[in-house]
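We give the chain.
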Amino acid sequence: MPYAQAGEVRLYYESFGRGVPFLFVSGTGWPGEPWKLKQVPAFIDRYQVIVYDHRGVGKSDAPAGYYSTRQFAQDAANLLDGLGIDEPAHIIGHSMGGRVCQWLAIDYPRKVRSMIQAASGSGSMDNPDYPRWLTVNSLKSMIEKGYKEHILSHFKSRFFFPPEFVKAHPEVLERLFESFGTTGRSSIPIYAMSSPVTSMRPVIY
């Protein structure tokens, strides 16, 4: 299995193609595996595409303690160093991954060639007590439905896909679930344990 030493942690990663590096940064609790469904095939003919699991997710190390998006950005910078990448990379971050990318650009500007924010934002400014863990409804759903049905129902919601798409393409949801749920440790418990995110301003969660 491909691992890179990224500072104090070993991160699981996969690299595809050749060219300018293009780092894909996942959202909270998500492994790098789902990027391989569509994004990796779309870019490997022009870029060195790198996907990886955050600390605490998938096959990467999971040290005890709270995690932060700024810490994840440091991990990403260390990953690029560990892979011997000495030129700026294109970076894309989904959801929380977008806030990781913002910290990466702030703290390590020489490592960033361009940045794409996918369904992301700058976080909750001036609200340090904003809850950052699984809601009661999510926990209730997971207990009542079980892990698989809870995740599938989440994927079937309008948060992810229009109802027409869900009805016409059930195989897409199944493939997404398989990529999300078969990458070592379950990501949902890690989400619950690691998502009280604290960081210095700007608050980027």
Observations:
- The longest helix spans residues 69-82.
- Residues 58 and 182 are 8 Å apart (CA to CA).
- The longest strand covers residues 9-16.
- Confidence is low (pLDDT under 50) at residues 188-205.
